[in-house]
Specification:
globular; about 190 residues; about 0% strand; mainly alpha; Golgi brefeldin A resistant guanine nucleotide exchange factor 1
């Protein structure tokens, strides 16, 4: 019997890969170009790995996180695609797909914190960009509040907090994200 968590990850792969392929950058590419693209290649490799296991615990968390974190770090992806990858990572945290007792969890959480605090994306319009920034805040919040967050180093927690403040004190933001106008932005209702 295959672990249902594997199906969750496969579904998220399909969502992110579908968005990448629908992007204007891909409108004229061939299947050979897809093999050469590092982001799509990384997701293809992950699909192969997931098809060869029956339990998610058989692989390191970094193995299934890496392609999503690469999208989050990529300067070539648009905000909406980065937002989908952030949503996927947040889902992995919220659904407890990452085992806090796995020996590779600490490294995976450090990589996640680093990728999300250094997220890059091609801006589209201010409203869409703010949605991505809000998703960054959501992932960082979830990371700190879930059991796997206990694996973060003090330096990573400090960097997460600095990133949250940097986003929330950004002068160009609307009232929803701006901490000056909405102090519940970072942590939501208690």
């Amino acid at each position: 019997m295959v672990d249902k968590n594997i199906y969750i990850i496969q579904g998220e792969i399909n969502i992110v890969v579908g968005a990448i392929k629908r992007n204007a950058r891909w409108s004229t590419h061939t299947p050979l170009d897809e093999e050469r693209d590092p982001l799509l290649h990384s997701f293809g490799h992950l699909k192969e790995v997931l098809n060869s296991i029956t339990e998610l615990s058989e692989i390191e968390p970094n193995v299934f996180l890496r392609p999503f974190l690469e999208v989050i770090r990529s300067e070539d992806t648009t905000g909406p695609i980065t937002g989908l990858a952030l949503t996927s990572v947040n889902k992995f945290l919220s659904y407890a797909l990452i085992d806090p007792t796995h020996e590779g969890t600490a490294e995976g959480m450090e990589n996640m914190a680093d990728a999300v605090t250094h997220a890059r994306f091609v801006g589209t319009d201010p409203a869409s960009d703010e949605v991505v920034l809000m998703k960054i805040l959501q992932v960082l919040r979830t990371l700190l509040l879930t059991p796997v967050g206990a694996h973060l180093t003090n330096e990573s927690v400090c960097e997460i907090m600095q990133s949250c403040f940097r986003i929330c004190f950004e002068m160009r933001l609307s009232g929803y994200l701006s901490l000056k106008k909405n102090p519940r932005t970072m942590w939501g209702p208690t």
